[in-house]
């Protein structure tokens, strides 16, 4: 006969281990909160927007071809703006204590499809430095792209501002994830302990293990009841001896 677990049995297991599940979940949330607020370093993000808008000096009006050309150039500019020829100058001018690769890791360039605008985002543990680096990269790129591409078609349309709050870590999100993970771990441990527990506790366990019906149950007698029975037995014995005498 295959063992089957009913929904009622599952609920009983959860109720029996409810305190353990609650402690595991609460512990996970507390540890996550401590790590989030006191261990993890806040990271700030600042962005500047750059427009590729001028086709060339000999064109007096925008054309479809000119716009399409600028859109295609955005992908090229995304690579140039993160190149050592730009970042090395930014490091020298700001006197940053980092390598080109380290600065490159702080930068993210994104653009919308078929858009002439791309966004340069810088992440740093210092909010003021994040904005300063973003603006400096935009300025150096606008200056150097004239020499690299031999065109003047870049405009900084939005300067980076000092962020007011960090983008990571996110305390509420982390604690919510810890809540879910804690519940899952607690429930998993509860069912594991129940599965490993092979002790017999009642007649239902005997029926399930031996697959035999229980014909009777012997009740448990505590010490007080046992002492009472012994005293009653002694009194009965005295009465029998008295009658016999």
UniProtKB/TrEMBL annotation:
<feature type="transmembrane region" description="Helical">
    <location>
        <begin position="172"/>
        <end position="193"/>
    </location>
</feature>
<keyword id="KW-1133">Transmembrane helix</keyword>
<dbReference type="Pfam" id="PF02706">
    <property type="entry name" value="Wzz"/>
</dbReference>
<dbReference type="GO" id="GO:0005886">
    <property type="term" value="C:plasma membrane"/>
</dbReference>
<keyword id="KW-0812">Transmembrane</keyword>
<keyword id="KW-0472">Membrane</keyword>
<dbReference type="GO" id="GO:0004713">
    <property type="term" value="F:protein tyrosine kinase activity"/>
</dbReference>
<dbReference type="InterPro" id="IPR003856">
    <property type="entry name" value="LPS_length_determ_N"/>
</dbReference>
<dbReference type="InterPro" id="IPR032807">
    <property type="entry name" value="GNVR"/>
</dbReference>
<keyword id="KW-1003">Cell membrane</keyword>
<feature type="transmembrane region" description="Helical">
    <location>
        <begin position="21"/>
        <end position="40"/>
    </location>
</feature>
<protein>
    <submittedName>
        <fullName>Lipopolysaccharide biosynthesis protein</fullName>
    </submittedName>
</protein>
<comment type="similarity">
    <text>Belongs to the CpsC/CapA family.</text>
</comment>
<dbReference type="Pfam" id="PF13807">
    <property type="entry name" value="GNVR"/>
</dbReference>
<dbReference type="InterPro" id="IPR050445">
    <property type="entry name" value="Bact_polysacc_biosynth/exp"/>
</dbReference>
<feature type="domain" description="Tyrosine-protein kinase G-rich">
    <location>
        <begin position="143"/>
        <end position="192"/>
    </location>
</feature>
<feature type="domain" description="Polysaccharide chain length determinant N-terminal">
    <location>
        <begin position="3"/>
        <end position="94"/>
    </location>
</feature>
């Amino acid at each position: 006969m295959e063992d089957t677990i009913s929904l009622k049995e599952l609920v009983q297991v959860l109720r029996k281990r409810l305190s353990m599940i609650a402690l595991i979940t609460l512990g996970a949330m507390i540890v996550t909160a401590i790590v989030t607020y006191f261990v993890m370093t806040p990271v700030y993000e600042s962005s500047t927007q750059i427009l590729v808008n001028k086709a060339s000096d000999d064109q007096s009006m925008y054309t479809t071809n000119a716009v399409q050309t600028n859109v295609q150039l955005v992908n090229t500019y995304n690579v140039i703006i993160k190149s050592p020829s730009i970042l090395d100058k930014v490091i020298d001018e700001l006197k940053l204590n980092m390598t080109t690769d380290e600065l490159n890791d702080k930068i993210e360039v994104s653009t919308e499809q078929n858009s002439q605008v791309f966004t340069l985002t810088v992440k740093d543990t210092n909010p003021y430095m994040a904005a300063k680096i973003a603006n400096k990269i935009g300025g150096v790129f606008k200056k150097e792209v004239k020499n690299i591409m031999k065109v003047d078609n870049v405009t900084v349309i939005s300067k980076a501002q000092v962020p007011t709050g960090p983008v990571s870590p996110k305390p509420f999100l982390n604690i919510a994830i810890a809540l879910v993970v804690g519940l899952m771990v607690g429930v998993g441990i509860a069912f594991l302990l129940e599965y490993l527990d092979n002790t017999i506790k009642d007649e239902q366990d005997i029926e399930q293990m031996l697959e035999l019906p229980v014909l009777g149950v012997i009740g448990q007698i505590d010490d007080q009841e046992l002492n009472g029975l012994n005293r009653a037995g002694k009194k009965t014995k005295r009465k029998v001896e008295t009658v016999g005498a």
